[in-house]
Design brief:
By secondary structure, the chain is mostly beta strands. It is about 10% helix and about 35% strand. α4 packs across α5.
Amino acid sequence: MAAQFSLTDSAGQPLSTVMVTRVLAQKPVLSLSDDGYPAHGVSNQAAVENTRFSDASGKLAFPETDAVYDYRFRKPGFKDQHLRSVDLTDNTEVTMVRELDPRMLAEQKPSNVWLSQLDIGGGKKLREHFALNCAFCHQQASPFMRVERSADEWLTVIDRMGGYGARIAGDLGEPLAEGLAAGYQRLNANFTTLPEPRSWDAELSGAQYTEWPIGDGFSQMHDFILHPNGMVYVGDNLQDRIYEVNPDTGVYTVYKVPHEAEDKLGGFLGNRFKAYGKINNYLGVHSFAVSPKDGHIFSTPSMQRALLEFDPVTKTFTRHEMKRGFYPHTIRTDDQDRVWFTLALSSQVAMWDRQKKVFTYFDIPARNVKEWLTIKLLPLIFWLDPETRPMPSVDRESSGLPMPYGIDVAPDGRVWFARLYANDFGYIDPETGDVTVVDAEVTGPRRLRVDANNRVWMVSFQTGLLVMYDPASKELTEYALPVLSEFPYALNVDRARGAVWVNGNQSDTIMRFDMAAETWQVYPMPRRRTFTRDIEIAEDGSVYTTNSHFPSWQIEDAQPTLIHIQPYSQ
């Protein structure tokens, strides 16, 4: 039978925007013969989950199905409720009980709310430096992070995170450690003063979510691609696997990315994750793009000097070795079937010409002599043993490491890039090869996208802003996010509908911005501690994302998922 619910409070009043998630009571048996993961080419049935919201009258319904489900009911300010299918009637009445325990009410609030009240001292600059280096893999001020530690313990954490990619300036390590120790002590003592998060939109009753659990607490479902063949291909960055997910059936097949015999764990960066429980990243599967010609999938293996190609028909991999460049990062294809991607450590953009089978490298101008020299010395540095190689000193401006990050191809053919640490962005003219850095500053631009009118959209990571640059007028426009204290990781542009989707990785949300109306829709995630870093837009305007928390065991129930959101309006 169909599952129909009437949601009320204890006084019998209808409750809108109650999030109801149904999960299979009996999970499919998985084949996990390869160190806890499916073997190469082996298919599994995902335990598909669905989420909907009650309307203004407190009603909602799931369609009829033969499967047996358990149900969770969630609304901020109320206790979670749970029901089994055997407890359902033709119209099941569920009474939501208000949560009165101040501590439990505080624990319901997403990390960004706690983060808004975290005072680490040192002013705006220290907070932005903290955000830039400490908020790009996992949430800050989550239950795992707000554990009270001494300054010495925080220094140990900061040192370990340096191996994972954080770059805390040498003179800021101790002030940050002391600030975190004192700040979390104050925060935990004053949890009753936390502000309220943004209320859930009443219109959410028109939204529908589907989730496919894939991987485990040691996976990192980093980026993915929605393929024209209807499949979604998700990359596990830590385990060198690609998940081919059929969103119609929930069946997924895993393909293990092959590595060469001489490849070492962690690639040219060395094994940075020795403290991690389970690791298999010889390549580090990162970003994805699809060929408009034959549907081949291109991926950046961030730990190797190479470009990876996957044929979704034959299921075979081809590795294209590069002689230059370090850390292949974000990737896009153009309408001429050329493959463009950033080289984050060597401050370059690379282009793979599929017809000529050659790489072209575009050097982005250095900001100063120190940066130029550091980049030139990188081949020598990375030739040395990872255990003993010297690394460039880190200052507050990240001199010497501008880190080109996001990239996109505009309708007019320009290839735009953003440099995270340099706080700038620019473009390449593919016809002339000229590289232009725009004379405008955006704090911490990560990934960018270009709309149908060739305007460039990006996030200002540390300051929590959506930013638009119009090349025609050469003007920057900033838009405040609709949630507080957010460090947005990335975005994508729906060119057909004039909308921008933004990753709310600290607030357990995905946000949709209407360009013309300049209004927001906010979609709360079914799982707490959801950290997303990539968005794909389907032809019908629905979107996909992944819960890409690192480490994944910090996710509620420690389960990464592929997430499909059908918005309530477009």
